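Work through this:
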Amino acid sequence: MNEEITTITDVQPDVKKEKEYVDYSEKSLSEILDIFSGMLEAEDHHDLYKNAEPLKAAFYKNLKKERAAAMASEGSEGNLSSDNSENGDAVTARTVPFIDEERRFKEMYARYKADRAEYNARNEKAMEENLSKKLDIIDKIKNIIEKGDVSHTSFTEFRALQQEWRDAGPIPNSRYKEVYETYQHTVEMFYDLVSIDRELRDLDFKKNLEVKTRFCEMAEKLADNKNVVEAFRALQKLHEEWKEFGPVAKEYRESIWERFKAATSVINKKYQAYFEEQKAKFRANLEAKTALCEKAEEIMNTAIESAKDWSKYSDAMENLQQEWKKIGPVAKKDSQKIYDRFRAACNRFFDSRKEYYSKFRDEMQENYQKKLAICEQAESMMNSEDWKATTEFFVNLQKQWKEIGPVSRKRAEQLWKRFRSACDTFFDNRNAKSDDPSITLYQNLKSKKALVKEVKEYVLSGNQEDDAAAMKDFIERWNAIGYVPMRDKEKINNAFKAALAEKFPSAEKEFRRNRPQARKQVAPVSEKERLIQLYNKKEAELATYENNIGFLSQSSGGLIKQLQDQIETLKAELAKLEGQIRELEQKENSEE
């Protein structure tokens, strides 16, 4: 066995490929620029060569994303054009976001390319020079062999040439195998020559054994290194150095090589186990990221129709993005694909949200103009004393208000207060000045609500006589207020009873004792007067219904329909009563 040219097939010589993959896709533009700048300053050509293109890809992908976001944000505040800019530079700076960042990156990338080209040129020149040196060393060894000189001087010269070979740097890969094999063959020829002089040969064998024994010890020590990748790199260097030294004595060749190979095997197994573990982590991370993609796609495909739901799903999507950042890397072959899938779902969702809010803002602006117009109409009529016609006018405005969609939150309250103020001004004037029966009922209802509130806020004195007197006063004031609309009667009565019972234990008994007797109905003097009284009563009911329906929300669909049916019934009854009254008036006129 010739241990000098044996290779270990399970060792991966390309150590550079084993550096852990760095995912720059989640970095911001400023972070990418800082990383690239730091690498340029460090002048680590291998690090730059490995990372420059991934940095470039991540930079332009994030530039496109952040530029689109910035343009969208600027568009929502009003697009700029050259007509409203002071100069062309201002236009460029605002309409093309991140232009300085892109210029800075291009400058750094151009510097990298120039440095890389210069480095490659220097490296190629150096490798050609090294090749020339090593070929010259081979020729010098051959000259020693051709002379047949095995003296101490020639052996010393041979050793110096070996050291020169080891000191010479790398040569072009295309010539490596050929030159190395030629060198090994030439060295073996020299040793065949010097075998005549055992003393010189054995001395060299001994020196080689000492060096290779030290290599074995170094390899065995590497097995204790917890950084598996670092240990593997160091092992590759030892293998390269091992090849640079000549053979050992025949009786040690097998054992020294087996020792070195055994140490190599230990590190290789750890290295393989490490990357199997990494692969398992990558698979788990890929599964986790795939699950997030599925959730993001589910959200993306959800039909969202309200601002509340958009807010809810936006929070959910942002939570997914935070989870994504916590998950470690995946295999390089899957990294871009899974990232693009997740980013596509996020982008489509946020693009749809942007489109919704853009349309929603337009609708809210239109709604704002409509409600503003209603406010102006209400304010123009709030001082009118044509109670009946203006009541119908305000009820109609209230209906229109309810049918109009939302406006922006900061404007909604202001508009509503303005409209409600105009409505309250009219209805307060009407309630104070009008003798319409329906208005009296409405005033009574307000008075009773105020009294219920007063009872709830009453603080017991602790003196039974004083508290009993207060309770009696509340009941007397309640009975003195008068009737309320029929639809509110039971509700307001129950509220009053509940408020009294909460404050006064004997309230129910006192309430029954002081309840006024039912008023005797005075019979109408004539049929006409009876019909007029009935007409007035139903007209009051109609006004109450029409006023109340305007304040119901659109979600109260069933109640609105019920009130609308009652209004139509009352209108029909009023029309019938009006016809009957006219017939009686005509009859009275004819009799006269």
